[in-house]
Predict the 3D structure of the following.
Amino acid sequence: MASLPSPLLADQFAPRCDFSRVDHVVVEADPVSTYKAVHDLDLTELHGFLVTAAVRLRELPERLRRRQAPRQRTRLTLHDLDAGTDWVLLGENPGHEIVFGAIGKAWQPVVKWVPIEARSFPDFTEPGYAKVVCSISVLPYGQRRTLVNAEMRVVLTDPRAWLSFRRYWRVSTPFVGVISRAILRTVKHSAETGR
């Protein structure tokens, strides 16, 4: 397997960003098996006290507003995002990288998400929003291992949104890290155990 093409697929959707976070893990499995684990990743299988706390904390304003818990999914792969979530699968370079994203006012207690299709995502410029692009990519790492990268890029559509998001990012970035590392742990476990 060759190295990731340059530029990354994520560059098509966020060639520059205002905020970003990248986490990595080395997997004791070949890139083909590792990418299969990425491709088959079920986000409902992310476990741990901090993951649950991060998700519940983000859902709390919506729960209070609706006075009911959001519907719990039994399965949610990256390819399921287009069906009934605010996230959209933006693209995939099979065997190398998968990219998904959402547009919204993440800093608001109850996020106002913008329904959007992948083809319209790059050209969205309406003021007052954050464009969030997430990428999971794999690279060969030596002869039998794989480096998996989970990257989040955030592009703000105007200066006021940038200021609002900066305050939110300071508080939320530890929780984003918890989720990102849980994704990487889950991919690693799945690739290494063949599950």
About this structure: The chain has a mean pLDDT of 84. The beta strands are 19-27, 88-93, 97-104, 130-141, 145-156. The domain at 10-58+75-193 is CATH 3.30.530 (Alpha-D-Glucose-1,6-Bisphosphate; Chain A, domain 4). The helical segments are 10-13, 31-39, 49-66, 159-193.
